[in-house]
Amino acid sequence: MEKTTLGKVAYLRSSIAIRERCGQLYDYAIRGKSAYFACDLTRLGMVADYVIEVINEEYPDLQIPFHSRWQHFTVGKIPRLNWLDQKLAGLTAIEKVIAKYDLAIISVLLDAGAGQTWGYTEPETQLMFTRSEGLAVASYQMFCQGIFSSDSNNSLKVDARKLQNLTKEELAMGFQITPDNPLVGLDGRLKLLQKLGQVLYSLPDIFGKENPRPGNLVNYLLKRVENNKLAATTVFNAVLQGLSDIWAGRIELDGVNLGDVWFHGAVSDDGLVPFHKLSQWLTYSLLEPLQELGLEITNLDALTGLAEYRNGGLFLDLGLISAKNPDVLSDSHPVASEIIVEWRALTVILLDLIAIEVRKKLNMNASELPLVKILQGGTWTAGRKIAAKLRKGGIPPLSIESDGTVF
Fold first, then answer.
1. Tens digits of residue pLDDT in 176-189
2. DSSP string, 380-392
3. H-run or E-run covering 262
4. In angstroms, rounded to a whole number, what is the distance separating the alpha carbons of residues 64 and 48?
5. How far is 94 from 124, CA to CA, in rounded Å?
6. CA proximity to 312, closest of 396, 211, 216
7. What stretch of H or E contains 200?
8. 273 three-state secondary structure
9. Fewer beta carbons within 10 Å, N or C terminal of the chain?
10. Cis? peptide before 174, omega within 30° of 0
11. How many CB atoms sit inside 10 A of residue 153's CB?
């Protein structure tokens, strides 16, 4: 592979590229050239006010956690994380974090949209959860039951051998799927986990030898700690380096799978627009376990907001983004369509602008209120709240054809 290709791949895997390429589509829309969307920046303050209203409801003391999978594990105010710590008692501090990485990685990869009709009833509590929280609780329970482990002496792990041999029946049973309780994208989720098993074997320097596990990424990251500090971008780079090959059917550059990267004709150079939504969501979810080891996470705001339907839906529902043609909102669109690519790009840039407004209104700086906390407090929660007010079932304002691996 030529050095120029290596440079292009590295660029498209960077948060710098996400902002630059999304910025092109934002400028395109602001100049009125988009065929699909318009932006009304006079609504920035109003949207920021709504986000702050939601933050004050959810976190009146402004002690906001990171926007991560760990928040979903506590849905229903059930102390699942305390239960997990009890189950992991006896392990060393690093072994505990490795196990938590196993759980977080598998849970985030299973987090794509569940659809409107699926739900999960938790055995211990008999509480029923839907959407992202339902997927979180289901994956937590499957992890605790040892569904992802081939080691009868250590069920609280995820390993390559079991992932490669995971069956559709096992995953369907774990998600409580029935004809009356269908889950969107089950086949896509299964293939993703099976592919993960293959990739783990292919990268022993990152995931370990013999029967590798995703949680061994911890050891890889610890070698990159300096003065007890680790940059969030270092974690993000490791996630992309280790996991990009799991995504099936994506754009490739000289045989390199680019992951969550899509084409839009209005983007200069090669027309490629990277988002890496799940990879950044995963990165955010891998930071808290590192903090448990006493590490300081730096460079948080180098990562971007997440280009997904709750954040993007918030902007559509509050008129910061508007569709030029009503058919855009009534039709369903594949992830690769320029409509969805453009919507996601606008979402990334507008999240940065909203963050500036929210900090200004709360008299806080980026260090006190990084983007990852504004997402949690925050735009994602506000997007869900306004969707629930406006549409039955809280469905997003724009319909996406999901394969179970992006949204």
1. 999 999 998 899 89
2. HHHHHHHHHHHSG
3. strand 261-263
4. 16
5. 28
6. 396
7. helix 186-202
8. strand
9. N
10. no
11. 5
Gyration radius from the chain CA atoms: 20
Contacts of 209 (CB under 8 A, 6+ apart): none
Backbone angles phi, psi at 315, to 5 degrees: -70, -35
Report how far residue 203's alpha carbon sits from residue 174's, in angstroms, rounded to the nearest whole number: 28
The pLDDT value given to residue 111: 85
Collect all residues with Cβ–Cβ distance below 8 Å to 115 and sequence separation of at least 6: 182, 183, 184, 402
Which of 246, 270, 201, 285 lies closest to 24 in space, CA to CA? 270
Helix (H, G, I), strand (E, B) or coil at 37: strand
**Residues ≥6 apart with Cβ < 8 Å to 90:** none
- How many CB atoms are located within 10 Å of the residue 111 CB? 24
Report how far apart, in Å, the C-alpha atoms of 399 and of each of 327, 353, 395, 396 are: 11, 25, 8, 7
By the 8 A CB rule, do 112 and 134 touch? no
Q: 124 — phi, psi (to 5°)?
A: -70, -40
| Cα angle value 15/212/94 (rounded, 5°) | 75
d(CA 174, CA 93): 29
CA distance 260 to 405: 9
Whether 54 contacts 274, CB under 8 Å: no
The residue to which tokens 């209104």 are assigned: 361
Element (H, E) at 252: strand 252-253
**Which amino acid, 226?**
E
Give the list of residues 6+ apart from residue 202 with CB closer than 8 angstroms, or none: 245
Max Cα separation, the chain? 61
Give CA separation, 104 vs 33, 59, 118, 242, 287, in Å.
Answer: 41, 24, 21, 15, 10
Token pair in block for residue 145: 């039951």
pTM of the model: 0.92
292-327 per-position pLDDT tens digit: 999 999 999 999 999 999 999 999 999 999 999 999
